[in-house]
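Blinded run. Sample ID left blank on purpose so nobody reads anything into the name before looking at the predicted structure. Input follows.
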Amino acid sequence: MQQIVRITLESDIPQYADMNIATGRKLKQLMMLIAESVPFKPNFSKLSTALGASRNNIADYCLYIEDAGLIMQLRDSAGGIAGLRKVDKIFLENTNLLYNLSNVTPNIGNVRETFFLNQTKVKYETLTSSSADFEIEGITFEIGGKSKEQKQIQSVERGFVVKDNIEIGYENIVPLWHFGLIY
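Blinded prediction complete.
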């Protein structure tokens, strides 16, 4: 898997986007920064400094990597052109990449959120929520483990807690594995 990611970043994307080899290496550096963060909250100015690239290019790099199926960019609910530019978090495309690309054991919260986003984005526009983790069609979702409480969604009219390590749901609590059935 690491070899496929490396070829995609260093060869496929630069060839597709008419970039040079050095830019391919910057894509790989960017991907490693994302892989080691929990989840990655982009600051394009800091990234441009770290990678030695233009701030405007960083957003393009992220779009190319997203189009290649390696990352997911979680945007906010702001409409119009401003909403298209605002990226709140960046996740790896799936949990397999989390375990393959990072030198450390992935944070379980990041694994849960990555799984949820990966499964829901197939059929729904999944956005960041101001009060919890995600929002889909006006419904708020807070992701957590078995002991996750409902603090983040108390003030939300339509909110659900999505818990890992439970078999069945009740009231507004849904097992995380249920979202794997969306596919």
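Unblinding after everyone has recorded impressions. Strands lie at 71-75, 87-92, 126-128, 134-136, 139-144, 159-163, 173-175.
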